[in-house]
Amino acid sequence: MEIAVLDINGKDTGRKAELSKQVFAIEPNNHAVYLDVKQYLANQRQGTHKAKERAEITGSTRKIKKQKGTGTARAGSIKSGVFRGGGRMFGPRPRNYGFKLNKNLKRLARKSALSIKAKDNSILVLEDFSFESPKTKNFVDVLKALELDKKKSLIVLAGSNNNVYLSSRNFKGAEVITTSELSTYKIMNANKVVLIEGVLEGIESNLSK
Question: How many angstroms separate the CA atoms of 147 and 8, rounded?
Answer without folding.
Answer: 11
